[in-house]
Amino acid sequence: MDTEIKSKRGGWGSNFGFLMASIGSAVGLGNIWGFPYKMGKSGGAVFLLLYLVLVVLVGVTVMLGELALGRRSGKSGVSTYRALSKKYTWLGYAGVLCGFCIMCFYFVLGGIVLRYAVGYFLSLFGGSTFAWSGQGTDFFGYFLTDTKSMILFFVLYILLNIIVVSGGVHGGIEKFCNVGMPALFCLLVFIILYIACQPGAAEGYKFMFSPDFSVFSDPNVGFGRVLKNAAGQMFFSLSIGLGVMITYGSYLGKQEHLQRNAFIVCGADTLIAVMAGMAVMPACSAFGVEYGAGPGLLFASMQTVFSHMGSVGNLIGFLFYLLVLIAALTSSISMLELCTAYAVDKQIEKGLTPKRAKH
Ligand code: PFF
Asked: I want to staple 34 with a disulfide (CB 3.0 to 4.6 A). Which of 28, 30, 136, 162 is the partner?
């Protein structure tokens, strides 16, 4: 019975594939955009310290719990909670609903990132200005009012997600992440090294790594707010609490080492968040852009940074947005998988064979 269900649901081809997919889910806009900007708002290194403590004390434990639950039940979030007790089923539904809402938010941002990546790519061939803009530096503001292209890129981004997830757990998600995650890492290292060579970058590192405890007594920040930001960021960044890790754990073989996997996923996610900070913060300090600029950090401030770099800015901009695109895709496909796995399990419970590719 178990092997029959497994053959209908599919599974990871290797532990490495599972790791790339799980790290891919965890590493997303939350790392590259949310982490640096929340750090910017919450006192730099103080935020980083609290964040690290929370990951070690809470994040790893919850991650391990979700992976263990998923592997034990061999099912997605809703069915796993139902198997524990009928009174917990709602937790599974709440996870799918929240995952769906975050996915919609991600689709919009992913569409914008795709447009930026394509724009910078085209500008490599079409002169030094950012393609299509013609609107000075306020490309973001212009794009938000350009409904047609907003919808076009939104739809393209959703299609990319559907293509990957319909390829199955192994044939779609795992294969995509096996290529995408190492590529993301290499791009990030390259961008960090490039930014490190810019004059003025040192200020950014100082902000990141020398704690300023006076933010605790600042009435606009305070300990409570830093803790709240760090805790929210930790849950979001590790993709825990919604059932994504239960679902990914359900495709994992019984012989794989869960504790080690949980540590690796949490460690890699934190490492990439810190590395993203090491790309974004020094870039801001080198080019005189504010750290805690919210959504504008990714879509306006970074664009200003690249436009100040001269002709090489278009290439660095393209590589940066390609990196952000990979990070966004590997996260949104995990949320789509959360919803898909729910539908797949429902079909299996009804005795049907799901149409999605199994390998
Ligand atoms: N962890 C992702 C990020 O840091 O951007 C976001 C995310 C993915 C949240 C999957 C929740 C989730 F289920």
From this structure: 30
Tokens read off for 100: 């769906």
CA–CA separation, 44 and 52 (whole Å):
13
Tokens representing 283? 């870039």
> How many angstroms does the Cα of residue 28 sit away from the middle of ligand 1?
6
Considering only residues 101 and 44, tell me which one the structure prediction assigns the higher pLDDT. 101
Nearest CA to 106 among 294, 335, 293, 322?
A: 335
CA torsion 286-289-291-296 (nearest 10°) is: -140
Name which of 243, 273, 246, 264 is nearest 30 in CA terms.
273
Lowest mean pLDDT among 3-7, 93-97, 222-226: 3-7
DSSP 104-148: HHHHHHHHHHHHHHHHHHHHTTS-SSPTTT-STT-HHHHHHH-HH
Which tokens sit at 162?
A: 């559907």
Atom of ligand 1 nearest to the CA of 242: 13
User: Tokens for 113?
Assistant: 């990132």
Spatial contact of 11 and 252, defined as CB atoms under 8 Å apart: yes
Q: What is the residue with the minimal CA distance to atom 12 of ligand 1?
A: 239
- Integer CA distances (angstroms), 52 to 3, 214, 282, 302, in order: 40, 19, 21, 26
- One-letter amino acid for residue 198 of the chain: Q
